[in-house]
Amino acid sequence: xxxTDINIRLKSVAVITYTEPMVRWQPGTSERLxxxxxxxxxxxxxxxxxxxxxxxxxxxxxxxxxxHFSDKREVLFRGQELLTEAFLGGIAAAxxxxxxxxxxxxxxxxxADFFPSERRSHARxxxxxxxxxxxxxxxxxxxxxxxxxxxxxxLRERGVAEPTATLAAQSAGMVFGIAFTQWIREGEERSITDxxxxxxAELRRLTGASHxx
Amino acid sequence: xxxTDINIRLKSVAVITYTEPMVRWQPGTSERLxxxxxxxxxxxxxxxxxxxxxxxxxxxxxxxxxxHFSDKREVLFRGQELLTEAFLGGIAAAxxxxxxxxxxxxxxxxxADFFPSERRSHARxxxxxxxxxxxxxxxxxxxxxxxxxxxxxxLRERGVAEPTATLAAQSAGMVFGIAFTQWIREGEERSITDxxxxxxAELRRLTGASHxx
DNA sequence: GTCTATAGTGCGATAGAC
DNA sequence: GTCTATCGCACTATAGAC
Lengths: 213, 213
Fold this sequence. Notes:
2 copies of one chain form a homodimer.
Chain A: H1 3-19, H2 29-44, H3 51-57, H4 62-68, H5 80-92, H6 100-109, H7 120-131, H8 134-157, H9 164-183, H10 192-208
Helix pairs in contact in A: 2-3, 3-4, 5-6, 5-8, 6-9, 8-9, 9-10
The first copy, chain A, binds a DNA duplex through residues 14, 17-18, 22-25, 29, 50-52, 60-64, 66-67, 70-72.
C-alpha cells in the first residue's frame, strides 16, 4: 500500500465525517460556554465555579475557555457589543437636524428589540448572578461606560459640541441603566422604551425644576 | 504554676513591648504603601508591578500589603470614602425645603476642598495610571457607582421619591465625573466647582432644549 | 507567616477545515 | 499547503484559608 493510497483513504473518511459536520468542533462554542456558565453561576455561585468546570461541562478544557473569553467574567457580558451597535444605529438613523436630546431619545428607542418581554426572566437570572458579585458589577459598569463613550463619539461625529456630547451620551447611558433595572423588577409590566420615556420626562422635570420647594 | 499565672506573665510581656511604641509598626503604613504603589505603577506600569514589590519597597511583606488592601487595585482608591462623606455632608447641610436639583448642587459644591489647584498634578499622575489599565478603570467606575448609590440613599432619606432620587443621584455622579476629567485636563484653570456649575447649566439646556434644531 | 487554589499567560503539539 | 480551534503543560501573581 502506497502513501497515495493512505491519503485517498483518509480523504474519503474526511468526506464521510463532513456529512456529519463538526464532530470535534461543534459550532457555537462561545454560546454553549455562556449558557453553561450562567447555569453554573446561578446554581453554585460565581466564585464557587471555576473556569475549568464551565469548560468541562461542555466538553472543553480550561485553556479553550480562555481562548473564547479573555477572563472569567467576560462570559456573562457578550452581547453588549450588539447593544452598542443598536444604540449607534439609532443615532445614525435620526434625521439631520435632530437636537442632541432627540439623538439621545433615538438611541434609547433603538434598543427595544433587545428587550422583549420574553427575555425578562433570562435577564433577571443573569442580573441576580451579577448582583451577588462585586467583580461582576464592576465589569457591568465598565461595559456601560464603554457604551456611553461610544455614544459620545457618535454624537461628536454628528457635530454635537463638548461638553454637550459627553453630557448627552452619559445621560443616555444613565437613563438606559435605570430603565433596565426597573424593567427586570418583579411586577414591572411596561416595555423598556416606555420606562425610558418616563425617565427622560422626569429628567427634564428634575433639571428644569424651579428653585422653590 | 496555674493557668492564671501564665496569663499574667503573657500580659506583662505585652505591656513591655508596648512601652517602646511603633518600632516595627510605623504609622501611616497604608499611606506609605499608596505612595509607593503610585510611584511604581507610574514608573513601570500597573501590571508589571507586583504587590510583593510594593510591599518590599517600604520594608513590608506581600501579606501585609493584602492586610491593608483587599486587592491590588484598591491601593489606588482609598480616599473615595472621604469623598463620599463630603458629598453626603453637603446634602445634609442643605436647607429643609431644597429641591432635588438643589440637593444635587449642594452635594457637588461640597467637594471643592478635595480638589485644590495644588492637587492637580498628583491627580493627573494617578489618572494616567488608571487610564492605562482597564482593570483600574473598572474599579474607578465601580467606586463612582457606589458614590452615586450613597447619594441616592441620602436623597431618599430626605424624602425625594423614585425615580427622581436615583436620577438625581446618578446625575450628580455623572456631572462630578465629567467635571473631574475636565479639571485635570492640561491647560484647564477653572476650579472643579466652576466646571460643575457650567455642566449643570449645560445639562439644563440639554434636557430643556426645544425640538427644533 | 505559610500554604494552597484559582486566574490567567505563553508556547508547542495536534487535528480538522479549506 | 494554510488557517484556526483545541489541547496540554509549565508557569506566575493574586488572593484567601489556615
